[in-house]
Design brief:
mainly alpha
Length: 176
């Protein structure tokens, strides 16, 4: 029945009828053609709008990435500072421990400490100051009696003259 009705309608009405239902595939096709026509009309404007939207999105993404990178850098810097302080504290403790042990070992060996040397240096400086402050006395002359006697030369032990009796006898030549 529908065929006879369709054929009857097609005979009485022209081919493009507005009240004729179109299948969904044809709707999609027509929508694509409409989009293409609009794109041709507004092609450059649409592309520019999309490029501008893309640039804005890229800038926003880069700004967000920069912000996160800055935050991460600050956190790592703070952690590195804390680590450096801890390491420095441990090195200082180790250094003091080493110095104490070396000082104890030197003390056991009888070596004076830096404080001992400084005290001796101060004491020597005080004594030098006292000596310089003393009035200079006239030199004492030696007694004349001790000067009058000349001392006899001291004979060395290796070069002592031998007496004739102590000398070994020389062999005498034989007379015939």
């Amino acid at each position: 029945m529908t065929k006879s009705n369709d054929s009857a309608r097609s005979k009485t009405k022209p081919m493009s009828q507005p009240d004729k239902p179109t299948p969904p595939a044809q709707h999609v096709w027509l929508a694509g053609l409409g989009a293409m026509a609009k794109a041709q009309e507004q092609g450059s404007k649409a592309i520019e709008a999309l490029v501008n939207d893309g640039l804005a999105f890229q800038r926003k993404s880069q700004a967000e990435a920069q912000q996160r990178l800055h935050e991460a850098t600050e956190r790592l810097s703070h952690m590195a500072t804390g680590f450096g302080e801890q390491a420095s504290g441990r090195v200082d403790k180790l250094e003091h421990l080493f110095e104490d042990r070396v000082a104890k070992a030197l003390h056991r060996l009888g070596m004076p400490s830096l404080l001992d040397i400084q005290m001796l240096t101060d004491r020597v400086a005080q004594l030098e100051a006292k000596l310089e402050a003393r009035p200079k006395a006239t030199p004492v002359k030696p007694a004349t009696s001790a000067r009058a006697k000349p001392k006899a030369p001291v004979a060395s032990k290796t070069a002592t003259p031998q007496t004739p009796a102590a000398r070994p006898a020389k062999p005498r030549p034989k007379t015939a």
